[in-house]
Amino acid sequence: NAGVTQTPKFQVLKTGQSMTLQCAQDMNHEYMSWYRQDPGMGLRLIHYSVGAGITDQGEVPNGYNVSRSTTEDFPLRLLSAAPSQTSVYFCASSRTGFYGYTFGSGTRLTVV
Amino acid sequence: DQQVKQNSPSLSVQEGRISILNCDYTNSMFDYFLWYKKYPAEGPTFLISISSIKDKNEDGRFTVFLNKSAKHLSLHIVPSQPGDSAVYFCAAIPSSQGGSEKLVFGKGMKLTVNP
Description:
Number of strands of chain A: 11
Helix content of chain B: under 10%
Mean pLDDT of chain B: 92
Number of helices of chain B: 0
Distance between the termini of chain A: 36 Å
Largest sheet of chain B: 6 strands, mixed
Low-confidence stretches of chain A: none
Distance between the termini of chain B: 37 Å
Radius of gyration of chain A: 13 Å
Shape of chain A: globular
Mean pLDDT of chain A: 93
Number of strands of chain B: 11
Shape of chain B: globular
Structural class of chain A: mainly beta
Strand content of chain A: over 45%
Oligomer: heterodimer
Low-confidence stretches of chain B: none
Number of helices of chain A: 0
Largest interface: A-B, 26 and 26 residues
Order of helices and strands of chain B: EEEEEEEEEEE
Helix content of chain A: under 10%
């Protein structure tokens, strides 16, 4: 029972580099989301998806792209990393939000 | 503009006593509320939820109370245990706006339960 798997767990990027944070779930959940957690800011929604082929922006989408080609995978792409994107990123999935989201263990990203 | 507010950043209680974690919200469109618990270096885990048609929901040692008129909810943990020491997030869903995919989180509150 893997749940939500995020890779990598840690990453250091240089300003301007691009990378993809991977997220996979094995619970056949339709809803998937990406959040970032910053000190004193709680969790903020970046992008979300309510099913394969459907994505939408959350509260803080700038600088990030997503796609949802399968039910299982929901990668988050940083196109040109900036120090302001230094954060802990969490992927989550749910059957619907009312049943509570299952979160991955997070990716700690540092942009220098 | 913080729509879900957890105004106290931390709380310390003795083992066996009650822990009360508070949460206020400003958006009257929120009608479903959840509490998440987070240990260091782990993702948040779902704890308990409540719909706006109820004023109380209980699950073992955890009870959530909702006061819609005051736009206030609270999480009670009785009795508190050292393993409850974690950061607790309050979250809300504006389901009446079309979907449950947009959780709005508070900033979190660190609970420490002392043995």
